[in-house]
Amino acid sequence: MTKYWMRGAVLGAVVAAFAVPALADHHKAVEAALMAPDRPAADKERDGDRKPGEVLAFAGIKPGMTVIDVNSGGGYYTEILSHLVGAKGKVIAHNDQVYYPFVEKDLPGRGYGSRLANVTEVHGMAEPLEQPAESADAAIIVLAYHDYFFHTKNRPNDADIGAVLASIRSALKPGGSFIIIDHVAPAGSGHEAGDKLHRIDPMLVRAEVEAAGFTFDGETDVLRNSADNHTDSPFKEGLRGKTDRFVYKFVKK
To answer: Edge-to-edge strands of the sheet including 136-142?
Structure first.
């Protein structure tokens, strides 16, 4: 038994020896993306509240990957992801028919396809993604899952969340990661919180994503804030950028 234990210990040490440099390289890549000289100053000013370095270290997104930024909004994360995945990677900046009208005027300044040459835009479509099957290494949706239940003239009812999640899962390669960040709503508040509070119950999100065939792969508390009462609007003066936010990681097995 001792012999097998020693073999296991040696193997573990070897794996760890290789893992530490790889982890260090990943952190360096994330740091370089955040420090990119052409990254807008206004974006960098938001880093303190959004903690993208910690989030992306947890997410495991690396150079060379293809990443879908689902409902990417004005492009804060798209910009960082573009620098992180580099010239050998690709970012799909997506905004659905509800999101796009809110951000359309801001997007030309990002330089997608030119300054950020590895970014492809996909905007104004129905909520389910229309991406080739098994084409992406990761997908990320930041502060936007709750908006599938936000009602506007373009969509007066809830989106079909099952169809949305199925489309994301289809687009991911086996082993691909799905990262979700959102404002925490009270437990049991249901989809209505997305429309009324611009928040979502984390346990509801986890249940829906797991029901779509994903496997939960952990969470980080880097954006948690116990002082948030979970009922105020994330846009409230003094609360914006400081809400209690969950960060979940799922994997397509």
So the answer is: 119-125, 90-96, 66-70, 136-142, 172-183, 245-252, 214-220
Count of CB atoms situated within 10 Å of the CB of 195: 16
> Hey, what amino acid is at 23?
L
Residue that is written with structure tokens 């209505």 in the block? 192
Domain ranges of the chain: 2-252
- Would you tell me how many other CB atoms lie within 10 Å of the CB of residue 56? 24
The total of other beta-carbon atoms located within 10 Å of residue 208's CB is: 18
pLDDT of amino acid 2: 44
Give the other-Cβ count within 10 Å of 100's Cβ.
19
Cα Rg of the chain (Å, integer) = 19
Give the model confidence (pLDDT) of 15-59 as tens digits. 445 545 566 677 899 999 999 999 999 999 999 999 999 999 999
Q: Which residues of the chain have pLDDT under 50?
A: 1-6, 10-11, 14-16, 19
Provide CB contacts within 8 A for 230, sequence distance 6+.
184, 185, 186, 199, 244
For residue 106, the Cα-to-chain-centroid distance in whole angstroms is: 20
Share the mean pLDDT of the chain.
Answer: 93
Q: Which amino acid would we find at residue 63?
A: P
Identify the CATH assignment for 2-252 out of 3.40.50.150, 3.40.47.10, 3.30.160.150, 3.60.21.10. 3.40.50.150
Which amino acid is residue 152, in one-letter code? T
**Residue 96, Cβ neighbours under 10 Å: how many?**
23
Residue 184 DSSP one-character state: B
